[in-house]
Write a structure and sequence with these properties.
The chain has helices at 7-33, 51-58, 60-93, 99-107, 114-127, 135-160, 163-171, 176-187, 189-205, 208-213, 221-231, 235-260. The chain has 261 residues and is mostly helical. The longest helix has 34 residues, at 60-93.
Length: 261
C-alpha cells in the first residue's frame, strides 16, 4: 500500500484534489452565480443578493414543476422497487432455462443512450397510443429504466443472502410468503433503500423522455428549467439549481446518518 507521505502519495493526493475540483467546480460556479445582483448570470457574482431566490420561490412554474417531478419520481421509485425486487427474487430463487438471457434482457435499457430511448418511445407511443401524453406516459417510460436500476442493485444483494435463514423460518411453521416478508425482507432493507433512491433520483433528474413524452400541464422541473434556460438565462435558473443541490446534499446527509445509526 502506497504511503501518502511519499512523493507518489503526494502526487496521488494532488490528483484526487484536482478530481474533486473538476467534479464540484461547476456546482460551485452555479451556486455563486445565483447570488449575483445583476439581471444576468455572472461569475464571479457582481454584488450579493437573495432576490433571485425570492423570485424562484414566487414563480408558479418552478413550484408546479417541482411538485410534478416529486410526484413522478415517487411513483416511479415505488413501482420500480416492487417490480424490480420481484424480478430479482425470481431470478435468484428459481432456476429455469434462459434465466441468464432474461437477466440480460431486463438490464439492457441501462446501456441505451437516453436520447435514443426517448426517440424510440416517442415513435412507439405515436404508433400505439396506449397512454395519453403526460404523467401516465412518463411513468411507463421511466419504469423502463427504473426497474433495471432496482434489479441491478437487488440481484447481488439477494445472492448474498443465505437461503438457509428463510428455510429455517419455513421449518418453524412459517409459510413461504410469511418467511420472505418477516425474515428475508428486513435483511434486504439497505439494498431496498439504495435501489429506491437510485430510481427516485433518475426519475427526478431525467430530461430527455420528459421533453419528448411529457405534456405542458405535467411538465417536470427539468423541462421547466430547460425552457427557462432556452428563453431567458437569468440567475433564477441558477437559484433553482442551487436549491436542488442543497436538497440533494441534505438527503445525502440524512441517508448517511441513517446508515451510521
Amino acid at each position: 500500500m502506497t504511503s501518502l507521505r511519499t512523493p507518489l502519495g503526494w502526487v496521488l493526493r494532488g490528483m484526487a484534489v484536482l478530481g474533486f475540483i473538476y467534479l464540484l467546480g461547476p456546482l460551485l460556479v452555479i451556486v455563486a452565480a445565483s447570488f449575483s445582483d445583476t439581471g444576468y448570470l455572472a461569475f464571479p457574482p457582481q454584488g450579493l443578493s437573495l432576490r433571485w431566490y425570492h423570485a424562484a420561490l414566487a414563480d408558479a412554474r418552478y413550484l408546479t414543476g417541482f411538485f410534478v417531478s416529486l410526484r413522478l419520481a415517487a411513483m416511479v421509485a415505488v413501482l420500480s422497487l416492487i417490480i424490480g425486487t420481484a424480478a430479482a427474487v425470481a431470478l435468484t430463487r428459481f432456476a429455469f432455462p434462459g434465466s441468464v438471457l432474461l437477466e440480460a434482457l431486463f438490464l439492457s435499457p441501462l446501456v441505451l443512450p437516453a436520447l435514443v430511448l426517448a426517440v424510440a418511445l416517442t415513435l412507439f407511443f405515436s404508433a400505439n397510443p396506449i397512454a395519453p401524453p403526460g404523467m401516465t406516459r412518463l411513468v411507463i417510460s421511466h419504469l423502463l429504466v427504473g426497474v433495471p436500476m432496482v434489479l441491478r442493485v437487488m440481484l447481488p444483494v439477494l445472492r448474498r443472502v443465505d437461503p438457509a435463514i428463510e428455510e429455517a423460518a419455513r421449518n418453524l411453521g412459517a409459510s413461504p410468503t410469511k418467511a420472505f416478508f418477516l425474515v428475508t425482507l428486513p435483511v434486504l432493507r439497505p439494498g431496498l433503500i439504495a435501489a429506491a433512491a437510485l430510481a427516485f433520483i433518475f426519475s427526478f433528474d431525467e430530461v430527455e423522455m420528459a421533453l419528448f413524452l411529457g405534456s405542458v400541464r405535467d411538465a417536470p422541473l427539468t423541462v421547466v428549467l430547460y425552457g427557462a434556460a432556452q428563453m431567458q438565462m437569468d440567475p433564477t435558473v441558477a437559484a433553482v439549481s442551487s436549491l436542488l443541490i442543497l436538497l440533494a446534499l441534505l438527503l445525502m446527509v440524512a441517508q448517511q446518518m441513517y446508515a451510521n445509526r
